[in-house]
Amino acid sequence: MAKTRAKRATAPKTARAKRSLAALPATAAKAALDRATQDIQRLQKSASKNAWAIGRRLAQVAELTLHKARGFSSIEAYAESELGLSRDNAFLYMRVAQAFSETIAATFGAEKLDRALRYIAATPEQETPQDIPELKLRIPPADGGAAVRKSFTQVTIADLRRAVQAERAGAKGRAKRPTAPKWLDEDAAGALDKGHKALAKAVGRS
Question: Confidence class of residue 177 from pLDDT cuts 50, 70 and 90?
């Protein structure tokens, strides 16, 4: 009778992935970052049209910490120096790429969708990004008065600014949500699950 073999402990998938990235040669990491930078710079020529793709590539750079290959301590430092993007705009692109499909981003635009994310983060309801295209929002009139319901397709960015301000003001008397939504968490900007595959392709492993 065969002896029972002790099961070999395996490291979590994320830990294994981090070790493989740490072992990536510096020249390969630099080459991958340079390719990503070139791609993003090309996409920036039509930034409003390519907002989702820009955010996706930025998130992959953040997830794989490729920015460190060229001496940048953070993704925002890399974005500002190499891409001319402010911290706010870099994270806007990444949030939209995380939360929405490319089709939705192209339909509504990155800024409008990002304002909508801020809106649902401030409301007491438990809406998700997937709810936004069909959502009816509480919009305060510009000249004051009671808020009215408008569909997301009808609202303007100015409407969304007022709505976010009103919801945040109303939230002061409400209990805090237990945790911030992941899609609005800037530190989770690199959570795209295809990031590792993108790196493997960039350095010729697939």
Answer: low
Would the pLDDT of 106 be above 80? yes
| φ and ψ of 81, to 5 deg | -75, -45
Per-residue model confidence as pLDDT tens digits over 47-87: 999 999 999 999 999 999 999 999 999 999 999 999 999 99
Q: Which residues lie below 8 Å from residue 178, measured CB to CB, with a gap of 6+?
A: none
Residue 87 Cα distances to 59, 81, 152, 189, angstroms? 13, 11, 26, 12
Q: Is there a contact between 47 and 84 (Cβ–Cβ < 8 Å)?
A: no
- Token pair 């409003």: residue: 48
3-state secondary structure 152-172: CCCCCHHHHHHHHHHHHHHHC
Q: Tell me how far apart the alpha carbons of residues 88 and 24 are, in angstroms, rounded to a whole number.
A: 30
Residues in the chain: 206
The whole-angstrom separation of Cα 44 and Cα 83 is 9
Contact between 139 and 149 under an 8 Å Cβ cutoff? The reply is yes
Report angle CA 155, 188, 66 to the nearest 5 degrees: 120
Task: Say what the pLDDT of residue 172 is.
Answer: 74
Pairing of strands 148-151, 136-139: antiparallel
**Which of the two residues, 162 and 172, has the higher pLDDT score?**
162
pTM: 0.74
